[in-house]
Here is the input.
Amino acid sequence: MFCTKCGVTVSDDTAFCPSCGNPMATLASSATTAPINANPMNATPTPVSAAPMAATPGVYVAPPAAFAQVSVSPYAGFWLRLVAYIIDGIILDIVIGVPLIAILVGSGVLAGLSAAGNDQSPQAAIAMLFSGFFLIAILIALVVIWLYSAYLESSVWKATVGKKALGLIVTDLEGQRLTFGRATGRFFAKVVSGFIPFAIGFIMAGFTEKKQALHDMIAGTLVLRKS
Here is the structure.
């Protein structure tokens, strides 16, 4: 038997506690019903604090979306522009070179036949042909490259084929589409860039603040990554 008040335990069937007179309870019932004071020293049990523990300061972990917002420069650097230039160069070589070579070969054959008919030296006739052809070829190539660059960069594409393939556009300093006149000025400003030794005028696109080559600074243009 077990006293629910003072905690005294007796082995017989005494109905009341010999110490305090409180009704006794069986040990089986005490297993399910907690005594008012189960402390043999009659001490008041210390209550367990229900207050939540203070949060331990930790390291803030940003959500994944914050890492997705990586700052990417809108300006196209030197290497992207170089690849675009190579693509455009291949296209222009095909457009200009193949017809000019065909014309040169045909003209050479005609010059040789003409020299043979007029009893002239074939070497002299071919030399004169090559001199004139060289000047004409330079003029034709210049006009074709100028129209190719200026027309496409001032078109709705805002880019040559090479730049468009790499997602680049050419704009003014406000990001607006170029006029044909400004695109023409940018093309001929490349002549100035070409006069700078070691191609510094073009390499400037790799380290200037807005990735501008010298001709971009002269013409007031930008080469941007298309968003």
Q: What stands out?
A: The chain is about 50% helix and 5% strand. The CA atoms of residues 193 and 200 lie 7 Å apart. Strands lie at 2-3, 24-25, 168-172, 221-225. Confidence is low (pLDDT under 50) at residues 28-38.
